[in-house]
Amino acid sequence: MTDGIDDAKRALRADLRERRQLRSEAAHETAAAGVKEQLDALVDELGARSLSCFLSSPTEPGTQEFIRDAVARGIRVLLPITRVDGLLDWAVADPDGEIADGLFGMPEPTGEVLSPLAVNDVDLLVIPAAAVDRTGMRLGWGRGYFDKTLGSMEHCPPVYAVIFDSELVDDVPRDLHDQPVTGVVTPTRTVTLAPHRR
Fold it and tell me: Residue 170 in contact with residue 133, Cβ under 8 Å?
């Protein structure tokens, strides 16, 4: 049974990755501006003073402008750093800080490293995804970092995945370890999908 789920996930991820790579630079710039507007509104609505986010890669809906602006507004932003053991360390976002390729070639900060527990203090988690379905089930990129993080949090704040509009789908293949999200942020809207779990 699990093999069938894994195969379905792999096929869907490959399709989504290809679609993302076909987007024009102009489309990515427009998406980044939309995502920033939606995330700014979400932060204001939740009154978040601290949050986690991720440094977007060139094919992802852009988060970097949002992060710079949030830090300038006095919001504490934690950025993930991948570890070989499947956990995430964190670093406080610094607009003047260096960015390097992480374990899997994704952009990551190079500042002072905080432990996986640092994320327990945030008011909002903003995470990447390949797709999310209408029940809030998230399909990640297959390495399990965010599923492990969410699954280990005793008091999880609201979790929003950043995706393109077409990546909010009716259904995604799911496994036992997969963790749902509260909602999604796209370039055009923010959608709350599942009740917030504490």
Answer: yes
